[in-house]
Amino acid sequence: MKFGIVTFPGSNCDYDAFHAVTDALGEEARYLWHREHDLAGADVVVLPGGFSYGDYLRAGAIARFSPIMREVVAHAKRGGPVLAICNGFQIACEAGLLPGALLRNESLAFVSETVRLRVENPETMFTAGYEKGQLLRIPIAHGEGRYTADEETLTRLEGDGRVAFRYVGPDGRTDASANPNGSMRAIAGIVSEGGNVLGMMPHPERAVDPLLGSVDGLALFESLLSRVSA
Amino acid sequence: MSNFRVAVHIVPRRGILDPQGTAVAHALQTLGFSGVADVKVGRHIVIDVAAPDRGAADRSAREMCEKLLANPVTEDFEIATVEPA
User: Fold this and answer.
1) If we measure between CA atoms, which residue out of A60, A122, A65, A88 comes closest to residue A4?
2) How far is B31 from A72, CA to CA, in rounded Å?
3) How far apart, in whole angstroms, are the C-alpha atoms of residue B24 and residue B41?
4) Partners of A45 in beta bridges
5) Residue B17 pLDDT > 50, yes or no?
6) Which residue ranges make up each domain of chain B?
7) Distance (Å) from the C-alpha of residue A101 to the closest C-alpha of chain B?
8) What is the pTM of this model?
9) In chain B, N or C terminus with fewer CB closer than 10 Å?
């Protein structure tokens, strides 16, 4: 399976994603420069973390106008899988691939730590390798990760099982102290209506090797491998 | 075509948590501005634009806000001024 990893000016997790795909998963990956006009046959597109265009105006606001994004949006509309991580999640929201927005962390601080996530829906192509309610240790590193949407959108997301991951404490429950950024309903990741776009603030690509302190992110990539190439 | 300078204000929507505004409000209260009830921190953007007339410059700026400058999910905007430039 072929992964296309988009590099915007200011992306800085593209190498991590490349490493996760090629070294940990053992699949093929190539970088897609933001000025390119085709996805070079990628089965899965990764919008990686970073600070595309310096986060000018709003995080992700400018990146969405990159030439490659037109192709990414078309790919998503065809049902193609898009994994949007951190800054990628912000870009996906700005591009209208996912509802809502990521705002400044409630604490106003940049938070860089390993958090606990609970798998809310193991039925998606990104989470099929997990159990419902499984707890994962995955790192986060962001200043603007507070998921925000109106009540109607939140209710729809919940009702349709589109909340993929939530921030939880060691006991597996949501509470304010375990919510690192003040996200509404402790939402850490959501999928699109068609289930083929996942946006998440935590970095699964940085949790694929025991050396990095956790391998809990690997199953996400393995899920894609089993669901997409099939 | 004439040149216009358009100023727009973009602020977090009421009801959406604005921790930056809250932090500034606390700082102002600490400084003794006890009358400060609430602060919203937003952006002020100045655009120089060529347009047939003032109304067209206003409409153009509004469209810019809707398409890019403001996030429709979380922010409100207003055209503060449109002046000949």
Assistant:
1) A88
2) 50
3) 8
4) A4, A82
5) yes
6) 2-84
7) 7
8) 0.94
9) N
Structure token pair of residue A64: 């969405």
* Interacting residues of A163 by C-beta distance below 8 A, sequence separation 6+: A120, A121, A157, A185, A187, A189, A190
Which residues of A are known catalytic residues? 86, 203, 205
Residue type, A229: S
Percentage helix, strand, coil, to 5, in chain A? 30, 25, 45
Residue A39 in 3-state DSSP?
A: coil
Nearest by Cα to A75 from A28, A42, A31:
A42
* Structure tokens given for A112: 């860089």
Q: A61 contacts in B (CB within 8 Å)? A: 68, 71
Average pLDDT of chain B to the nearest whole number: 96
Q: Which residue of B has its CA nearest to A64?
A: B68
Give the nearest partner residue to B19 out of A57, A106, A150, using CB atoms. Answer: A106
Q: List CB contacts (< 8 A) between B23 and chain A.
A: 108
Q: Which fold has domain B2-84?
A: Mth169; Chain: A , (3.30.1280)
CB pairs under 8 A between A and B: 33
Contact B73 A57 (CB under 8 A): no
Structure tokens at A182: 């003040």
Position A230 pLDDT exceeds 60: no
Question: Which chain B residue lies closest to A61 (C-alpha atoms)?
Answer: B68
Contact assignment for A103 to B17 by CB distance below 8 Å:
yes
